[in-house]
Amino acid sequence: MKFLVFFLGLLVRPQAVSLARRFDSEKVFRVTPQNETQVNFLKELASAVQLDFWHPDSVHHIVAGTDVDFQVSSYLANHVQMKLEQNELQYEILFHNLQEEIEKQFKGKSYFLKKHSYLKYNDWDKIVAWTERIARNNPKMVSRIEIGKTYEGRPMYLLKVGKETGRKRVIFIECGTHAREWISPAFCQWFVKQATSTYGKDKEMTKLLDSMNFYVLPVFNIDGYVWTWTENRMWRKNRSNNSNSDCIGTDLNRNFKVAWGTESSSDDPCDEIYCGSSAESEQETKEIANFIRDHLAVIRGYISFHSYSQMLMFPYGYTYKMAPNHVELVNLIMGSSPGFSKMYKLNPASGASLDWAYDEGIKHAYVFELRDHGRYGFMLPESKIRPTCKETMLAVKYIASHILASAP
Ligand SMILES: [Zn+2]
């Protein structure tokens, strides 16, 4: 009998809970180094043992006085904890058992059976069906374009959102670059829904859609996103093979042709911030870069969505030089949304889409780091999708209106 129950249990088990990569007893630490000595200690620790950085996204970005969140395997957790204590670093354990959190997120989901929802995280199949449906239901407002294919051959869909009248200025919106940042694609879906459902009701949105088009890429790194639903919830990079290495994937946000392979990127295919074998070596990067180059004449703004930390950032990340319109960018951010409490220049990084777009001539380029401040990080519960998207929507409308007013 026991055997039978066990066997049935296997049959009805929601598919996603059995992700191949498990995180039993893996911990997520939050450490706040107080001075340079502690920063250097953390950097040394990261070179000695495998730490997976959640925020900031690599060891290069650690600065004194700011929180550093990283994930550690179960067999290293005690060692790391001891080292932190020996060196008198303040720390907190955000997750004691990451596997439990992942199971909570997938619990009862049987995701392949449930319908698409703006208040839930949707897998790629549901997002594809949604792109088709929202275009069909809003023929005068939304059209779906395939801009290319991913490494694994999935079509990369872009939604063009705006009232169909002649040649218009464009804001390009990119979501889902880093696979595990699920709140980002959720926002892109929310944005399209809000745009279509408030047209004619909300004055600001109506004006925006009458005068501009939004090109919305709901998931940039589709192969990686699929992987987070089927194999490894914490995957970040794309899924391309690397010659001379067993490690898979490139960080698409280090792969653009802008100071490629220099500041805060890695040439080791096993690193999370691996920049690829050359600029635009990745299929996904190439497709998006080509599309943007082809449409440069009309694109006035570029907005990219990541998580987490609730910050809004702007160029440059590859140099400490200020962008020529630095003051304008700062003022805009200060007025944009109370939800984005902090304002920072982009973290140092090279090959990022934001800087690339800026240097291609798109003078309004921003990165949002969505919720939260790290209580849940990448495991942000679905109950937070609505407040996150609402506050972000306010900021995006504010920025878009400014672009409309200032970029002919
Ligand atoms: Zn990211």
UniProtKB/TrEMBL annotation:
Domain Peptidase M14 residue range list: 120-403
Which residues carry out catalysis?
369 (proton donor/acceptor)
Name the residues that span the membrane.
none
What InterPro entries does UniProt report for this protein, alphabetically?
CARBOXYPEPT_ZN_2, M14A-like_propep, M14A_act_pep, Peptidase_M14
Q: Which UniProt keywords apply?
A: Carboxypeptidase, Disulfide bond, Hydrolase, Metal-binding, Metalloprotease, Protease, Signal, Zinc
For activity, the cofactor(s) needed are: Zn(2+)
Q: Which domain of life is it from?
A: Eukaryota
Respond yes or no to whether keyword Transit peptide is given for this record: no
Similarity comment: family membership: Belongs to the peptidase M14 family.
Q: What is this protein called?
A: Mast cell carboxypeptidase A-like
* Organism lineage: Eukaryota, Metazoa, Chordata, Craniata, Vertebrata
**Encoded by which gene?**
LOC107124661
